[in-house]
Design brief:
The protein has a domain of 58 residues. Helix content is 18%, strand content 18%. It contains one helix and six strands. The strands form two sheets. Strands 1-4-5 form a three-stranded antiparallel beta sheet, covered by helices on one side. Strands 2-3-6 form a three-stranded antiparallel beta sheet, with no helix packed on it. A hairpin with a 5-residue loop joins strand 4 and strand 5. The termini are far apart. The relative contact order is 0.13.
Amino acid sequence: MRIALDTPFLKDGIRSTNFFNGRLLSAEDLGQEQTARDAAQQRLGRALGEGVAYGLEVSLSQDNSATTPLVTVQPGLAVNREGEAMEPVSYTHLRAPETGAYLVCRLLPEKKTASLTPAA
């Protein structure tokens, strides 16, 4: 099957809103743009692959003790298998397991949804 070089790929593309001066914006337009941006970032994340980009170093916490083992996870950036960026914005203190020779830390981000209230 031959395809001409100037043939656009229209299937499974990311649909984005065409903004221009004078266009009346609606909530649907802005929602579509956010969806398109999220899809593009997710595709980029999947293309780069999962893993830690920088940071997220784990070290023993200053408050560490034999009875309460604690570790500190530094801020950083990682990409999960779905291509979503995970970026903790502060140091995280975790209680370490009391047994075993190894420590495994899993970053489990919360999905936060913003509830917007229209201005009166």
